[in-house]
Every structure is written in C-alpha cells, then in structure tokens.
Amino acid sequence: MLDFIRTIVSEDLAEGRNGGRVFTRFPPEPNGYLHIGHAKSICLNFGVAQEYGGRCNLRFDDTNPTKEDVEYVEAIEEDVRWLGFEWAGIHFASDYFEQLYGYAVDLIRKNLAYVDSQSADDIRGNRGTLTEPGTDSPFRNRTVDENFDLFARMRAGEFEDGAHVLRARIDMASPNINMRDPVLYRIRRAHHHRTGDAWCIYPMYDFAHPPSDALEHITHSLCTLEFEDHRPLYDWLIENLPVPAQPRQIEFARLNLTYTVMSKRRLLELVEEQHVGGWDDPRMPTIVGMRRRGYTPEAIREFCERIGVAKRENLVDVALLEHAVREDLNRRAPRVMGVIRPLRVVIENYPEGLTEEFELVNNPEDAEAGSRKVPFSRVIYIEQDDFREDPPKKFFRLAPGREARLRGAYFITCTGVTKDPATGEIVELRCTYDPATRGGDAPDGRKVKATLHWVSAAHAVDAEVRLYDRLFNVEEPGRVDDYKAVLNPASLETVADAKVEPSAAAAPAGTRFQFERMGYFCVDSDSTPARPVFNRTVTLKDSWAKIEKSL
Ligand code: ATP
Ligand code: MG
Fold first, then answer.
1. Would you tell me how many other CB atoms lie within 10 Å of the CB of residue 418?
2. Using one digit for the tens of pLDDT, what is the confidence trace for 317-356?
3. From the CB of 304, is ligand 1 less than 6 Å away?
4. Rounded to an integer, what distance in angstroms lies between the CA atom of residue 383 and that of residue 392?
5. Is the CB of 38 under 6 A from ligand 1?
6. How far is the centre of ligand 2, averaged over its atoms, from the C-alpha of 344 (Å)?
7. I need a surface site. Which of 73, 259, 272, 294 has the fewest CB within 10 A?
8. Which of 59, 220, 224 is the pocket-test mutation for ligand 1 (most atoms within 8 Å of CB)?
C-alpha cells in the first residue's frame, strides 16, 4: 500500500500535474552532522524520486552563517552517499542570495514588504498571542520608495545589526502567527562559509526556502510536521513572487526514537561538553556514529522503509533499528571467534607444541563466504561466563567434571580449577580432551549441552573491545527537564584484554564480524595491526523479535 505522500505523487502524475515530473530535494542546514531522523527524510526524498523516475537535489539551507560550516557540508555529502544515494544536483541557498534579494525588492515594489525599524523586542511584543491579534508596526505604511531606499542601504551596510528588518506585509490579525508580517531579512554582520563577507543581510529560512524550491523546479517539497503552520506563508510567497515553478509543500511526522535525542543543538552540546567522544562516537544517533559502530546503509534503509511515513507523530522503539541491523549483519558478516573476558584453559592430555588447524565456515547464511583455518593448541581461552565452579540449576556450560564442545574442535572435560592463592580467584581451568571427537562430534553419539567459542592462546591477538549500551537511561530523554541528567554512565565499557582469532585481527577499519555467541563487532578507526580495536555494533539477543511476538 502506498503511504500518503506516494499517494499524492501518484495522483499528481495521473492527473498530469507538473508536466509529469517528480522533483524532490533534501534540504539540510549545515550546522551539524546528519542523524537517523535525517536518514528518514533522505530515504523518503531520494526514494520517491527514484520510484517515480524523478530527480532529487541536495540543497544546503545555509542562511544562518553564524552556525554553519564547511566541515558539516562535507560530512553531509559523504553521509548521503554512504546511505546509497546520489543527488541530481547540489545547490546552496546562498547561491540564490542575489535572486532572493531581487525577489524581496519585487515584494517591496508590489507593496507587499516593508522595512521595519522597531527593535527586536518590540517586534516580538507587537506580534500578539494565539488568542490576541498583533499590532501594526508604526513603520508599516512606509512608501514604496522609502522601503526601496532603506532596503538598499541595509544591503550596503549603512546600518547596525538589528537596526532594521524587512517584513512581509500580510496580516497582523491573522489567526496564524506565521502570517503576521513575518521577517524576511535581517542585518547580520557574519562571515558566511561560502559567500564570505559579500552580504551583511541574510534571508530568513522561511523566506529563502519556497523560492529556492521553485528555482530548482521542485514539485513536492517534503518537510516535517513543525512546518505545517508555515505552509500558508510558503504558498503566499510562491503566489506573490515571480518564480518559475509552483512547488507544493507536504509535511510528514519526524522520526522519534526511544533512548535517543535527535536535535542537532543537543547533539552538538553532547560533543562540545564531551559527554561523547565526538560526532562519530558510536553511541551517537548520527550517521557517522552509526557507521563507525558498524551499522550498514542497507540496514538503515530497511529500517526507514519499515517505519514508513505518516502524518501523526509517534515514537519508534530503537529495538526495531537494532533488529534491522542484526538481520542485515546476519546475512553478511563473517563469523569469527573472539573471547571478550578470557579464562585460560590448559588441555593437559593435548601434546605440547602441537598446532592443529580446523576449517570453520565463515558464514552459515552465505555459502559463498567460504571457510577459514583456525589454529588450535594446548592452551586456549574461553569466555569466563562459560564456566561456573558451582553451576546453578539451568547453567549447562562448562563446570568441574562436565563435558562441553569447543566449536569445530573437540569435546573437553573440566578436571580441575587453579586459583590464585591470595585472592581465591580462578586463574585457569585444567581439562582433558577426547581425540575421538575431532571436528566437534563424538563417534559414540554422546551429546554435550554446550558449544563454546575459544581461541588458541599461542595464536590469539590481544584486542580492545568497546561495549556500548544506550546513551540514555530513559525512553524519552527529550522530554525530561534536563536530558543530560539521564545520560547512562555505563554507556561505554572498554575491555582492554580481549582475545581474537588471528583472521579477525588483521582486518581493516570498518570490517564487520560476528563474534560467535557474542554479537556483531566492527573494526574501529583507532585500530592498529598491533592492537586491534572492535566496537560492539549490536548484541545477538533480539529484543525486537520478542516485542513483535507479543504484538
Ligand atoms: P534538528 O531538529 O535535528 O536540528 P533540523 O530540522 O533543524 O533538525 P535540518 O538540517 O533543517 O535539521 O533538516 C533537514 C531535513 O531533514 C528537513 O527537511 C527536516 O525536516 C528533516 N528532518 C530533520 N529531523 C528529522 C527527523 N527526526 N525525522 C525526519 N526528518 C527529519
Ligand atoms: Mg531545520
């Protein structure tokens, strides 16, 4: 079934509107890195264009020079490409500054705009409230010539910041506050990352956006719900400006995710106050953060498709995103063995100095992924959690006197435990192996209840492993008074001395693996061949599958 946006686009095509064209755009402001909410908008805009044989532009809404930067422009381009999309054209609202200025002059000529010299406080104070109309500015009836003159001098830099603004002359009594003579231009002496110091007046977003859309012949201008009340102004501008096309604005609900904040202002705060390591910290909901964590573009696109687009605000469970990541990685990530909290095991009846190699399949989900050789020797590591000296009732893994399988290798039986005499801590297990179980099965058909992952101590590579948990402790951190007070202090646990099999240790940054039984991991950019670093992308346990079952 088509969502409401695709329904509108289909109808427009069926009725021959816009000459059969579908042009969309993704319009980020380069004042921060893209987050998963932007991914929803990207998938929608580029997706609709692709599906209807149209085009989608990337347009930077760079009308606020004090907050914007080329660092963000470059990062946004990289993220859109990484998500798998290519724009038809790349544009900047700042490229239209001259045309936008001309449009403003045109509004003055039609007596639809005036220079207001009230202070910012007075403009705010005279705007009225939801229940009371606004009050006309004493400058509202300036003559066209006077407005021409003042606006030209605003541009020429004759006035201080804030001395005047240009406003549309619409209706100070409109029930819609956005229509009460909205500000179109303000004076702001700020260096712009593209236009430098060429301008000291800058158009407001609300004024720049509709004609920018029209200049690019955008047919469907898709934006989030908070712009619904701005649509009358959008339409007013399209109607009153001599623009070359009549784009239509359609609003959809933004993505909200549990345990996540999604406003760029807050994300910037987390970075600047060093609650996280940077925009690309793997705990961030940014595209760069998710990439570094090991999320795939396919998984993010699949997630966006599954959540769909609608008109009503809702809150999506972050478990659904993790579910999409897990499903995708299950298909594509090669399996390796990595022991996160190692426990040394000595196999006492295994020959000293012998190394065997076992052939293990790389991915049972993908026959083409082939197999690899994994070395085995007398001393190995298993996971501390896979052993209990006093096993509780439902613990089926290794324990004194008990037999378990080492994945793809042998059955071993625990014969003893060596403890640190000072602390009483277990430092090592003593085991025996059954040579007849080579490859992992007993010829006499006896069964074991557990299969453990392992690495050979002589061949293992020491690795750092970073285990991530949710960045926030509450479902809706955006709704509490101080979202920083609900940061999860345990959102990152660094394990310094994990052990991984040699084949995983040499992989370049960005390589994704499943550590058998432990989760999906991705080689971090801090990694070196001597000291690999792995980010846990997501655990194997799928809380979404449970939620889905209960629905
Ligand atoms: P934020 O509120 O996070 O600062 P923004 O809306 O100011 O975001 P823009 O750079 O203006 O950020 O956003 C570019 C596009 O992405 C806009 O069309 C916006 O509507 C859309 N977008 C932003 N956040 C979301 C979201 N959470 N879900 C869906 N679309 C979003
Ligand atoms: Mg915005």
1. 12
2. 999 999 999 999 999 999 999 999 999 999 999 999 999 9
3. no
4. 17
5. yes
6. 54
7. 272
8. 224
